């Protein structure tokens, strides 16, 4: 599975931002031309010129990069401001206020549920006050007209909110299916890759612990795979309870990986040794069986511009040494090669 597929929401919002920027840029240019030259509405026309420039800049930017939240917020605020100003100063017969009904859709698509709810409620209040403050509401001077306008807005708002809420929940479930190990709930290999390549923007001081349950095959052979699965669940819970920071990933049958960001060689070793010592003292009671497990751990520190594959290999090499030396022990990669120099330098700095 491609990591890019996990950016579904980000890609959706970027596409909406890109094409809405283009469409609104064209419309803003047309309206600016009309308001400046024919409608004698200079304030709105000048604002529309600035809005058009911003929209086209955002369009060309999002063709090459993912858009930022501030760009989406700026577009929504700017467009809302234009609609409110146009409604306040313009003739009600121009029907510019109708744009208000389209705004909730844009809010939810660009900003998500939380911002969408806030902006939709805010623009409803502001536009309501703006309309009621006008000297005349002709042709909206009847109760039926105002009720219909209100109900249309509320309906569009409700549909937008329900759609975004369902889309977000569905997307979260798909992401969990893609990223989580179904047995233990730990992250899987794809989650590990995503975390390393996407979420970890700063990798200085990053350490990896590669952990393997010693002689786990004997547990499966002696007690059955169902008991073995429950041991894996218990061990995963053990790791999580002792992690103040970092993530746990299950990358093999009984093999796990833990990332420790913003650490140092001594702290990473001490944490790994603490896990080893504490797990060895726990007896799990599973189906009237008392089961004790130990772990072997390999520790590696991140090297500049290192790929995840090489990072894993260095931690795996250290884990192999731990197994070769009798298991139930911790071996660090920076004791095995010249990466010691890099880690010591990081520690000193």
TrEMBL record:
Q: Which reaction does it catalyse?
A: 2 GTP = 3',3'-c-di-GMP + 2 diphosphate
Q: Supply the Pfam families for this chain.
A: GGDEF, MASE6
InterPro entries tied to this protein: Diguanylate_Cyclase, GGDEF_dom, MASE6, Nucleotide_cyclase, Rev_trsase/Diguanyl_cyclase
Domain of life of the organism in this record? Bacteria
Q: Which UniProt keywords apply?
A: Membrane, Transmembrane, Transmembrane helix
Residue span(s) of domain GGDEF: 204-335
Q: Which PANTHER family match?
A: DIGUANYLATE CYCLASE DGCM-RELATED (PTHR45138:SF9), REGULATORY COMPONENTS OF SENSORY TRANSDUCTION SYSTEM (PTHR45138)
Q: What is this protein called?
A: diguanylate cyclase
Record the organism: Pseudoalteromonas lipolytica
């Amino acid at each position: 599975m491609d990591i890019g597929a996990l950016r579904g929401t980000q890609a959706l919002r970027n596409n909406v931002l890109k094409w809405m920027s283009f469409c609104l840029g064209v419309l803003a240019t047309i309206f600016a031309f009309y308001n400046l030259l024919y409608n004698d509405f200079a304030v709105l026309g000048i604002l529309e010129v600035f809005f058009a420039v911003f929209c086209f800049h955002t369009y060309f930017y999002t063709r090459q990069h993912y858009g930022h939240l501030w760009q989406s917020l700026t577009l929504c605020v700017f467009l809302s401001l234009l609609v409110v100003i146009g409604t306040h100063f313009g003739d009600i017969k121009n029907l510019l206020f109708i744009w208000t009904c389209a705004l909730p859709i844009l809010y939810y698509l660009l900003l998500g549920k939380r911002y969408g709810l806030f902006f939709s409620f805010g623009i409803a209040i502001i536009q309501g006050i703006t309309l009621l403050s006008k000297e005349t509401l002709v042709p909206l001077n009847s109760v039926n007209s105002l009720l219909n306008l209100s109900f249309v807005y509320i309906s569009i708002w409700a549909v937008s909110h329900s759609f975004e809420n369902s889309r977000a929940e569905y997307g979260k479930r798909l992401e969990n299916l893609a990223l989580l190990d179904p047995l233990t709930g730990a992250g899987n290999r794809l989650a590990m890759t995503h975390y390393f390549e996407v979420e970890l923007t700063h990798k200085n001081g990053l350490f990896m612990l590669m952990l393997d349950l010693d002689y786990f095959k004997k547990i499966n052979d002696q007690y059955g795979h169902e008991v073995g699965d429950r041991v894996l669940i218990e061990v995963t819970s053990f790791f999580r309870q002792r992690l103040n920071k970092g993530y746990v990933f299950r990358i093999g049958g009984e093999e796990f990986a833990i990332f420790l960001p913003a650490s140092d060689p001594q702290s990473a070793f001490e944490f790994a040794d603490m896990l080893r010592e504490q797990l060895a003292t726990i007896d799990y009671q599973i189906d009237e069986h008392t089961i004790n497990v130990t772990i072997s751990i390999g520790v590696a520190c991140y090297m500049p511009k290192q790929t995840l594959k090489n990072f894993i290999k260095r931690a795996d090499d250290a884990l192999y040494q731990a197994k070769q030396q009798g298991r139930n022990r911790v071996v660090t990669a920076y004791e095995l090669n010249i990466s010691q120099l890099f880690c010591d330098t990081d520690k000193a700095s």
